Amino acid sequence: MTQTTDAATVQEPRAGRRPRIHRAWFVAAVTFVTIIGAAAFRSLPGLLIDPLHAEFDWSRGTIGAAVSVNLALYGLTAPFAAALMDRFGIRRVVAVALTVIAAGAGLTVFMTAPWQLLLCWGLLVGLGSGSMALAFAATVTNRWFTERRGLVTGILTAASASGQLIFLPLLSWMVEEHDWRPAALTVALAALAVVPFVWLLLRDHPADVGLKPYGAQEFVPKPEPVPGAARRAVTVLFKAALPHSRLRSSGGTPIGPFWLLAGTFAICGASTNGLVQTHFVPAAHDHGMPATAAASLLAVIGVFDVVGTVASGWFTDRFEARRLLAVYYALRGVSLLFLPMLLASSVHPPMLFFIVFYGLDWVATVPPTVALCREHYGEDSAIVFGWVLASHQVGAALVAFLGGVARDAFGTYDMVWYASGALCAAAALMALVIRRRPVVPVV
What we know:
By secondary structure, the protein is mainly alpha-helical. Helix content is 74%, strand content 0%. The protein contains 19 helices and no strands. The longest helix is centred in the middle third of the chain and has 30 residues, at 257-286. The radius of gyration is 22 Å and the shape is globular. It starts with a helix and ends in an 11-residue tail after the last helix. Residues 1-18, 244-253 and 437-443 have low confidence and may be disordered.
């Protein structure tokens, strides 16, 4: 009885003046800054490969295995983190995640064996970063916005991807001038610095401050905490993945949209985090380019990613999401096929063109993917997107590992670039058959 009465008392927003700028935009801004600040920890793995190989004589495959564990857990943790946010609130989950990241990054400075790299950077940082994954952005967007969701998703996605890349020149300089350990400590301190910012300024739901979600016509009471976060995450996965789901009757493909989205996003992760972010710097170094210059090119990708991802969010609010995905993957595949011919000892105009082009397309796939999850799975869309993101990171983990193995075996990354280009072409075709509609003959 008490619960019902309490819910009734919060069903109407506060009377009085309406703020000129909706609080949702401030929450989005806090989330943006939080993701940017926490993204330093995603910048370091690609810079560790050569220093760890030189200092400990660990093979690139061994180091790549630790990076792959990190990337896989980044994705596999996301759906459970989204469910935990429904149970304990956004602030608590994010604050704990940042603390775990700081512990994992800080402890790496004491490691002397490969298993310690797997434990610290693979397990701890992987679990913490997974709780700060794009499912976090999807949860904030779903709770605080009913309009401009595509645009907000694009902005928050840009924060995640660009934050990973814009730290690269600084961290690369630190690795070259002061060893890799100060860079790891910098990552740990950056994660810790964000914790009080999150705790003091982030809010879990519009009802906490007596407001409607942005664009909503009616006030939305804060839902009760959902118990059984792990069980709910797994249940949502089975509901989304089963081919005989109710979604099939609404015009979906026989295998269901979940598998198509998961497959395309796995290729997205393979061609971005797994390949370019992890292996671009050592691949460019193989051609005589200084590591700092290569890291600066990745930072430029991060700058143009902001433009591309925000634009993709704007497009997603206006155009069919599956067609946007097909275009993005096709263009990405073509660009990767040309990359082996562009790598050289110095930066030249064709390489700059590739960097700008790839930056615009880096995670432009996220807003239409989130939109398709929302369209098909409604209130469960953040958790479903968490599972789709898991496939993204599994793809990234495989290529992070196999890329290092290929470099050890063949002495070059060329075959990996070509294979990723072909996979992107396959992803473009998969995107086109999501929610394929029957053709109506023209009489």
